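Translate structure to sequence.
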């Protein structure tokens, strides 16, 4: 087994961070849509 260099570890951490951000944004967007839909139902 080769020793993993630090730059590659940093790249993996960056990829995980970006993936986490995308998941967070998509969930916030979904929650926003749900709240708007429920608000429209109440108003109608």
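Result:
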């Amino acid at each position: 087994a080769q020793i993993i260099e630090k730059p590659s570890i940093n790249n993996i951490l960056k990829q995980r961070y970006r993936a986490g951000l995308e998941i967070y944004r998509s969930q916030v967007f979904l929650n926003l849509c749900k709240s708007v839909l429920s608000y429209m139902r109440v108003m109608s």
